[in-house]
């Protein structure tokens, strides 16, 4: 999938990535769960330098989720498009899987924050499973 493209539900905000997918990750942390209303979130990790936001420039807005993380979403329809955490994941952006065109072809290689995983979610996820995120120093 190169280039990677995607958009929000209403189509006002879109993006293009001129580079490869670095990783596909499912996150089971409570923060992702509360922000999405889902049991976990799946992200497509790409280089920030290869991501271009297209569409109406005024439609993309951000919310400071934590002191390290910002969530970018469409101002019109509210679709989350990507997250940025420049302290922990410098130079990377985490695209929300459901916004990526052709996301059906992607499969997570790992699950992170399994310590927070809801017990009723899939018991045998593909890929590697980590109690926390790799590189997370707490």
Order of helices and strands: EEEHEEEEEEEE
Percent range for β-strand residues:
35-45%
> CATH first level: which class?
Mainly Beta
Largest sheet: 8 strands, mixed
| Uncertain parts | none
Number of H- or I-type helical stretches = 1
3D structure, described in words:
The protein is 5% helix and 37% strand. The chain has one helix spanning 30-36, and strands at 4-7, 13-17, 23-27, 41-47, 51-55, 60-64, 70-74, 80-84, 92-96, 110-112, 128-129. The protein has a single domain (4-129), classed as Metal Binding Protein, Guanine Nucleotide Exchange Factor, Chain A, CATH 2.170.150. A hairpin with a 5-residue loop joins β6 and β7 (70-74). The protein is mainly beta and 138 residues long. It contains one helix and eleven strands. The strands form two sheets. The chain has an eight-stranded mixed β-sheet. The chain is globular.
Describe the structure in brief.
With 138 residues, the protein is mostly beta strands. 5% of the residues lie in helices and 37% in strands.
Which features characterize this protein?
1 helix; 8-stranded mixed β-sheet; Metal Binding Protein, Guanine Nucleotide Exchange Factor, Chain A; 5% helix; 3-stranded antiparallel β-sheet; mainly beta; 11 strands; globular; 138 residues
Could you outline the blueprint of secondary structure elements for this entry?
Layout: E1 4-7, E2 13-17, E3 23-27, H1 30-36, E4 41-47, E5 51-55, E6 60-64, E7 70-74, E8 80-84, E9 92-96, E10 110-112, E11 128-129
Parallel strand pairs: 3-10, 10-11
Antiparallel strand pairs: 1-2, 2-5, 3-4, 4-9, 6-7, 7-8, 8-9
